[in-house]
Design brief:
- The complex is a heterodimer.
- Chain A is mostly helical.
- Chain A has one domain (5-300).
- Chain A contains 11 helices and 4 strands.
- A 4-stranded mixed β-sheet of chain A has the order 1-2-4-3, sandwiched between helices.
- In chain A, β3 (114-117) and β4 form a beta hairpin.
- Chain A is elongated.
- By secondary structure, chain B is mostly helical.
- Chain B starts with a helix and ends in a 23-residue tail after the last helix.
- The chains are: A mainly alpha, B mainly alpha.
- The interface between A and B is medium-sized, with 19 and 19 residues.
Chain lengths: 304, 183
């Protein structure tokens, strides 16, 4: 499949909407299962509570994402004087994208990697490990910066916060339901008018929904990575730089020291071991696949 | 009853018209902003030139023809206004600067001097910014021209006094290539 960055951007955005809609559908399905099993009274009580708890939990980390991630990754904010060449490169991408200048941070780490966060472009933060600045040449680094600025432009902190909220609400809701079932709740059973097949289906939905939500969340994250690659090319019109950068990352087997799953999805290259986690649960598309997509864009020649 | 339906339809039409009008105005403003960004970056480049010429002169005083070309191209670029003029002067200056850097290649002492190296980094990042500002401007013009040429926004161009704008074309074919800088 060969496509230029415009059609690649469109396709990834459409798939994100589909996946987010599927998340919404899943929440509805689980609420429906609760309705079948526990009746309207209990359901109208536990669904808002589950959504509320999840919303409160995620919203804080979304709103303060730039500060929170600094703490969790140990990144240090830097100014122009610390690294004028890096700032020159970032300013180039800022001009190309029309976005405001982000905050810039450095993570002292032996693995080459980078990430972007912040609730909106005005509060954006992009960070680089010390190693990535050593191993990459100017074109490669420009590709990486463009990828991170693409996350800012596409508001991926917001997208992942929405996905996390929904997945969280689903997990909390099915947890509630399991507990209530365990403690012998379930008004409808006493009424004796509930369809047993429907009850079994509800039970299955309750058990499977959290896993399905996790899969959907990972799928959304993978779409946003592919989208960021395409948007990065729309900024630099130079797929070669990013492609070579990804090849450099693929060659390097060291991973970022912090292994906290909580912030794994924000790095340009996943810090989690690819083999341990199956592809379906991965937050990033396989790096070879991303390289191939960029190579296909290169074959289209200079892009206007 | 009918009067409310008619009023509702009129209100919806008005909201639709306002949205189209505002879209055209917004696109037009972003083109202006994008052009201002090109001018900012071109000015930055102009500001770097006297310093660069002085530095090269210190090592290669007899390359007068090259210096003259840069100085006259800079003078033209300083006085240029409007998309066509600015882009023509921009192309000339890009070519003159390339000549100057080619001259510098022949002087190892010059190439090794820290002053020249930092000027070269400044110049190459500014060249990249100029190229990206052009690209951003042309993307914005593309979006505006698409809106001006397609229904339904095309019905409102007269009302909004917004017309299709010119792309920023650089005369020099070399300058159209993607920026590529190596150190």
């Amino acid at each position: 499949m060969s496509s230029n960055f415009r059609s690649a951007e469109g396709a990834n955005k459409r798939k994100t909407y589909l996946l987010l809609a599927a998340m919404g559908g899943l929440t509805w399905l689980l609420a429906y299962a609760a309705l079948t099993y526990f009746g309207a009274g209990t359901t109208s009580f536990i669904v808002p509570i589950a959504v509320g708890i999840s919303l409160i939990g995620v919203w804080g980390s979304y709103y303060g994402s730039d500060k929170l991630v600094l703490k969790m990754t140990g990144a240090q904010l830097i100014t122009r004087e610390d690294n004028p060449e890096l700032f020159n490169l970032i300013e180039e991408v800022v001009v190309a994208s029309g976005l405001p200048m982000p905050k810039v941070a450095i993570v002292n780490d032996a693995a080459p990697n980078a990430f972007a966060t912040g609730r909106d472009p005005e509060h954006a933060l992009i960070a680089f490990t010390t190693r990535i600045l050593e191993v990459m040449d100017r074109d490669e680094l420009q590709g990486v910066i463009a990828h991170e600025m693409a996350h800012v432009a596409n508001r991926d902190t917001l997208v992942s916060a929405v996905a996390a909220t929904t997945a969280g609400a689903i997990a909390i809701l099915s947890d509630f339901m399991a507990r209530m079932m365990f403690f012998g709740g379930g008004r409808n059973r006493r009424d004796g008018n509930a369809n047993p097949i429907l009850l079994v289906i509800s039970l299955a939905i309750m058990i499977l929904a959290p896993i399905a939500a996790m899969l959907l969340r990972s799928a959304i994250s993978r779409r946003r990575e592919s989208l960021a690659d395409a948007t990065a090319v729309s900024f630099t019109r130079n797929p070669t730089g990013l492609r070579r950068a990804l090849e450099t990352l693929a060659r390097d087997s060291t991973v970022v020291r912090q292994q906290s799953n909580a912030v794994a999805h924000i790095w340009i290259e996943s810090p989690l071991d690819g083999k341990a986690v199956s592809k379906m649960f991965s937050t990033h598309p396989p790096i070879e696949e991303r390289i191939e997509t960029l190579r296909a864009m290169e074959f289209l020649g200079p892009q206007q | 009853m009918e009067i409310f339906i008619i009023l509702g339809i009129i209100a919806l039409l008005a909201i639709f018209a306002i949205a189209q009008y505002n879209r055209l105005i917004r696109l037009n403003i972003s083109v202006d902003e994008a052009f201002a960004q090109i001018e900012v970056q071109l000015t930055r480049r102009l500001d770097l030139i006297p310093n660069l010429v002085e530095t090269v002169k210190g090592y290669a005083a007899h390359e007068q023809a090259t210096f003259d070309a840069v100085v006259s191209a800079r003078a033209k670029a300083t006085s240029a206004t409007g998309v066509a003029d600015v882009s023509a002067a921009d192309g000339m200056l890009t070519q003159a600067l390339r000549g100057l850097l080619a001259v510098a290649e022949a002087y190892p002492d010059l190439k090794a001097s820290t002053n020249f190296l930092s000027l070269q980094e400044e110049l190459s990042t500014t060249e990249n910014k100029v190229a990206f500002a052009r690209q951003f401007y042309n993307d914005n013009v593309r979006a505006l021209n698409e809106a001006v040429g397609t229904i339904p926004t095309s019905f409102f161009t007269g009302l909004a006094k917004v017309n299709a704008r010119d792309f920023y074309e650089v005369e020099d074919p070399e300058a159209r290539k993607a920026p590529k800088v190596n150190f």
